[in-house]
TrEMBL record:
Keywords: Membrane, Transmembrane, Transmembrane helix. InterPro entries: Csc1-like, CSC1/OSCA1-like_7TM, PHM7_ext. This is CSC1/OSCA1-like 7TM region domain-containing protein. The keyword S-adenosyl-L-methionine does not apply. Residues 742-1006 form the CSC1/OSCA1-like 7TM region domain. Residues 321-337 have a biased composition (Low complexity). One of its GO terms (cellular component) is plasma membrane. Signal peptide: none annotated. One of its GO terms (molecular function) is calcium-activated cation channel activity.
Amino acid sequence: MATTLSHSAHKSRFNISTHLAQSLVAPIFHHEYSLNVRDATQVNPVCIGSGLDAGSYGIIATIVAPGIVGLAIWITFAIVRPRYRQVYALREWFVPQDVRPNRLESNAGAFLTPNTPMRPSIQEDVSNAGQSMAEDAQLFPSDEELSQRTLWTSFLVVLSWSLAGLAGAIPLYTVNIPCLAQSNGPALYTGVFSVLQDLSLLRLLRSIDNLQLASQSYLALAHLNPAESMSIPHTRIIVLACLAVVATMLPALYLTLKEFRVIVALRKRWLDIRCGGRDMGWLSADNAPGLAGMGEQSLKEYLVKLGLRSVGRPNRRNGRHASSLSHSHWNSSQSSSSADGVVEVDVQGLFSICDTQNLAVLIEQRDEILENLEVAETKYISSFRLSTPDPSIADLEVRIPPPTKSNKPYISHPLPLGGTNRTRRSRKTNPAHATSSFAPTAFVAPSQYYKIRGMRSITSLGNTPNDSGHLSFSDSFQQRIVGSRFQEVNRDSVDYDRLPLGSQLILEKSGELGPVPDPRFYGPNHPTEPSGSETLVEGSTHRPYTETSQGGGATAPRIPTVMEGEEGWTDLMRDVDLDGFMGRDTVRLVETPDQLPPARPRPPRIVNTPSTDRRETFPLRNKAETNAVAEVVPPPHLRLQPRQPFVRPASGLDYDDLGSVYAEINQWRSKLKSINSEIVDAQHDCYTDIAEGTHVKGWILIGRGLKHIHGVELIEGRAREDIRWDVLQTGTHILDSVGLGIVIFSTTMYLLLAITAVTGLSLSTAPNFAHYLEFLQPLSNRNDLASGIATMLASAIAATLFAVLVFLVVRRVAFWSPHVSISAVQLLSLKIIYYLFFLVVAGVIVIGGAVLYSIEAISQHRGVTKSLADGSIYMAMFALAYILTASFTIPGLLLLRPVRLWKVLRAEKTAITPRQRFRAVYPGSSDTANGLGACVLAIIFASAFSLIFPLIGPSVVLLLFLTLVAHRFLIGYVYCRTLPSTGGLAHIWLLKRLATLCTLQPLLLGLILLTRHFWLEGGILVGIALIAAILVETYCTRATSQPRSLNPNTCDALQTLSHASKQCPDSATEDETSGLGSPSRGYRARGSMASVLEMMSLTLAVVPSESRQRGILPLQTETLDDLTATERAARTHPDAPPHLPPLSFAVHSEETAGVLYAPELIAPCPVIWLPHDSAGVARSEADDLEKYHDLRVTLDVQASQDVLPSRNISRAQ
């Protein structure tokens, strides 16, 4: 009870002293305020809960405007995701079937709950490693999954900070503490404190300042003890210091360091088990000039003599998968090696990299030739279509009629009898006879057109069509051969008399060939079937065909007999162009109108139905009389075809067009065969250079302890895809490093100036700031929505754009670095981005904003430290607007990927061949900085302001949560592991930096308290923060270091190798090397090489291991090269069946998986990739290319033609 009364007494005394201080200090502010004439338009400050000001309006606008944009982005993604599986469902069809996720539903919100954990698990028991690819993917998470774990850890850390700030700090700042409007009053010149600053540490500090000012002069008049008046604020400072250490720093350090230990242990297991304790490195010839003249075999023997290479073959892994060696076997081999004292530095694999720039140019040219050949083949294949004798869905061609202004139906004009005269391409030929035996274009149609069957003897040429060896036109279609060929009819047929050469023939109803009806007796819309299939009046027949005399002269028309009582005939002879119909070279009998036959009456209407091929695809309604019986015509998809379908050219193409297309095929096919031989010769020369040690750029090493070899740069990804082959060829230049440094320095200066300008704009409404920058006074004199939008929303958007621009520039110029691995470049870009965001963005906003805020105190040399502390707190509101803008836009853009979507759609639109479509949708590599870039800056602000300005915590939590949701979907269905994993190397470094950031909050709070002369509390906080930072750095450094002492023999061998590699070769060696490398040396025999592997084994005496028994390194990725694994690429596209049987053979990329020579050296002859068609033209072309031109061909796998029909049949059964 006594304690309660004492506390109440202290509280009442604090309230009395606070109100007294306000009543005494307010006149002083009012007196200073009245001295300025410009203060007549000064806006009055507002307490929280009493209204809004420009700052609060700006924060609300920052929530609303980016929130609407972000919501639109998320809704757009929910709509377009099911429609573009080639962009948003890559892992459902691109990766191997063992690691494909379950297909996501097509509803709009399915991406919010994918089959991917929010926090991927890490298993400590890896005894099952190597059994399958899916098992290894679970035991050793990829870098993308480790990024998800890092985001989850950051989310938990910031969530704990937010709870501590909202539940612990805000009550300390607001309970029984007057607002800033009451404690400060109006500013001296312009500007006010924002309403949101009432929820920050600034409110408590201003009250403490007022109490200290009042206690020095006026509290003695009220008979109050100054120590008692400061006791309650001092208690709150102590509680706040305890919150900064106990509730924020220690839990954050625990969560961060716990995750750090897990990732470090994972990386050790990844190095020991997944990589077998082996490293991959690059030794440049510039760093080892003494080894440049040695051949590959000689260098291996030299390493054996030094004791740096084991004589026996390296351990191979047996099993179906590339990592089939068990954990126990690895442990036993490693323990035996260490126990027996085997070499600690063991170079198990060595691959020489020679100069292949000319070979790369040839391969680039071959790729262009291959593309042109495939484009020509695709055009040729698409020039044919599968047709049916009767109209069906296969013949359906939807044609859009031209727009007409009237509402009347469009009726086409009848076609002329002679057809249209097409303009043919002029081709000059020799008019003399027997001057050339050059044949026309070999194939202007599929080869089925030219297959000869049913051969008869020469004596049977004059037989009638009824001979047993003759096949009718209908019987030829009923054979198993799909397609058509040219058909002929006996010129001396007894049915049609003698026919002129070149007469047009059509199929009659009986299945035999017959001539086209004479156009003199039929109108332009005559049926294609001759009169043999049409019955006139009962008992009457006619044959309006020409009859040829025995002498071979001109033919005269045979006039049919006309029955009496028939209607009159109409003479069409004068309106018909017989030249266009029968040809210009045909001799016409009738030359003058006097010789024309007399007009005949029109024959009666045909009583039977018209030809089926003139019938509409979908018959119109019968407009006959009601009592007439309508003809029942089945729809096209229900019609039973009388004969098998056949292949015909597409509409609008003639044989000239097909001939030009096939001429392109011949051209590019010849070039491809020619450049293939050139590339084989160039590859042979490069392998000879490797064997002789000439033109060598360096060596790729695989083995143990490579980091101890002088001049070796480790390749952390330990995979072929992680090597920058262009850097190996061109080497590293000092200009690249200088250019990188200049660009980074220029970017830093640009970002520094841009963020400083944006920070100054956000301070426009700060007290007395606009007085020194007059162009900001219009914003300072207004306290409305427009001022808030200009100072908060516009500033936040500009700062976000500047940060994104710098992010893109850094990622681009990071590849100017001399690193030979992509993983090292990505780690370098992550480090540069982190330090730019930490030192420039966050540093300028906090420190630079504090300096700009204190421009008045600096000019007056009064209260500079207090003003700097107040300015750092005031800038937290701009940091809040910045994070809110990023929270609503960055995760949505990360999920939508608009630039990637636009590029894919544009590339698909221009793609013609299957290879072009495959390359259009090929997934890009992911980067750790993509998902963590914005979150790093948000965590920096959260570590600084979570307690000082507690409203910033929920905004950072929102950003991390939305990023977690987006990133979970991306790693489960979008990101493909085309780049190798590094075992969490970048995440270990980032977690180390986050652990250090956890000490930033006590440090900043301690410095602020020191400005208010709280020496004890401020000193303790600063000391704790510095000690914790030192301990964190020491612990993380020792946890990641791998101290290992080498035995004296290994050290001597390494020193000998270093000395031999540094010295220049002597004169004899130099002469010998120059002799080997000179162009004047002996001619190199070039034999026919069956494959690149055979060439390699004959030249280097090296046999690459099989795909099922290859070594541990290099590691396998999900990369799919369409040039080395064309058969797999043909089965990999969004429309392919989800489950296909495995290939019965190993592709080239699997056969050379353990070889680390330059890609140009192991590049095989490309496989031509043709599209699949239902007409069988692509299959015919593939057979011809493989049989007659020795070119490998594969066809695109289409689910609708190849797999779905059989699967539907099985379901029906």
